[in-house]
Design a protein that fits this description.
Elements: H1 3-67
């Protein structure tokens, strides 16, 4: 095995290692994006409930003040 072959093998090893690393990073990024979408979806489904509760509280307060 000559020096040229050693350099080619080393270059191939490094290329494979880089591809593997990029694959892991891509998987992690997809997982984080999916998690963020899930959290945003959950928050958006809670927002109408919170708005409705706040409106009801305001109405109740108005009714109490008006009755007094």
């Amino acid at each position: 095995m000559g020096i040229k072959d050693q350099f080619q093998d080393k270059a191939q090893d490094l290329a494979n290692k880089a591809k593997g690393s990029m694959g892991e990073k891509g998987d992690q990024a997809r997982d984080r994006a999916s998690q963020a979408r899930d959290e945003a979806s959950e928050r958006s489904s809670q927002a109408p409930d919170q708005a409705r509760e706040a409106a009801q509280e305001q109405q109740d307060k108005f009714d109490r003040d008006y009755d007094a």
